[in-house]
Design a protein that fits this description.
single chain; alpha/beta; Rossmann fold; 6-stranded parallel β-sheet; 3-stranded parallel β-sheet; 10 helices; binds guanine
């Protein structure tokens, strides 16, 4: 088993981003600027947004976290987004999900100017991604592609099985791995809660991407010998063992699956760190105006 080491790869790519950010700042007289909107106080979201902001600072970006109480109206949120859309000093805007029930995430996603949509959730970015056109690729799938690229893993012709069809990970991942690109050129199966014979489907995968949000869901008996296993899960459980009071579990039973896999990502230290890299790269591209 070989480790797909998110710590190593994210550190290397962040060094490159830092250099590019410095060059951008020297040329333009301002830093790339990411704004993150956080509504309410979901524990996971708080942690993720804090990490995004901290990493922006680390690579020389400006970052702003705008926080709202859980009872902000949809209209108030929309008018703030429209204001940011018009602000030439802000390059990227993300609205952390999930949102409270009274706010429609689709409406919010479509309000964000697609040229500032560094989450890559806007339908224009999704459509452009499918056509291999300039776009923002959702951060987690983007980070996974960067990881496969870093390790020089040849994906062409392989059977990729994705477990979970979320807008954030599973669905865009299926497009990226099927695209005529490198990494890519896979034969993709996108499985979900209504898939029949899930175990057989996953067993057929040369590449398995687990993105269902269920602790240790993918077990060794579901994985083909020599498969490449990508674990997207970040399942938080309260624990007295760690300083933070939480312990993270992946969607893959790492201890057992690592005995059959050829390559595998750990949790923590795998995909989560690469997600940040995807977001930082998108923000830099937004500042440069690559997506227009
Ligand atoms: N919630 C979980 N993942 C993400 C993400 O990548 N972006 C946003 N905006 N919210 C999320």
């Amino acid at each position: 088993m070989n480790l797909l080491d998110g710590k190593l790869v994210s550190a290397k790519i962040k060094e490159d981003i830092k250099k590019e950010a410095a060059a951008f700042t020297a040329q333009s007289g301002r830093k790339p600027h990411l704004v993150a909107i956080l509504v309410g106080n979901d524990g996971g979201s708080e942690t993720y947004v804090a990490s995004k902001m901290r990493n922006c600072e680390l690579v020389g970006f400006e970052s702003t976290n705008i926080r709202y109480d859980v009872d902000i109206t949809e209209d108030e949120l929309i008018s703030k987004i429209k204001e940011i859309n018009q602000d030439p000093e802000i390059d990227g805007l993300i609205v952390q999900l999930p949102l409270p029930k009274h706010i429609d995430p689709e409406k919010i996603t479509e309000t964000i100017d697609y040229r500032k949509d560094v989450d890559g959730f806007h339908p224009i970015n999704l459509g452009r991604m499918q056509r291999n056109l300039p776009c923002f690729i959702p951060a987690t799938p983007y980070g996974i592609m960067l990881m496969l690229e870093y390790y020089g893993i040849d994906t062409a012709g392989k059977k990729a099985v994705i477990v979970g069809r979320s807008n954030i990970v599973g669905a865009p991942m299926s497009i990226l791995l099927a695209r005529n690109s490198n990494p890519g050129n896979c034969t993709v199966t996108l499985t979900h809660s209504r898939t029949a014979n899930l175990k057989e489907e996953v067993l057929a995968g040369d590449i398995v991407v687990a993105a269902i949000g269920r602790k240790q869901f993918v077990t060794a008996d579901m994985v083909k010998e020599g498969a490449i296993v990508i674990d997207v899960g970040i399942n938080r459980e309260e624990s007295t063992e760690t300083k933070s009071g939480f312990k993270l579990y992946g969607d893959v039973d790492f201890d057992e699956v690592s005995k059959v896999a050829s390559w595998i990502t750990p949790v923590p230290g795998g995909v989560g760190l690469m997600t940040i890299v995807g977001l930082l790269k998108n923000t830099l591209e937004a500042a440069k105006g690559t997506v227009y």
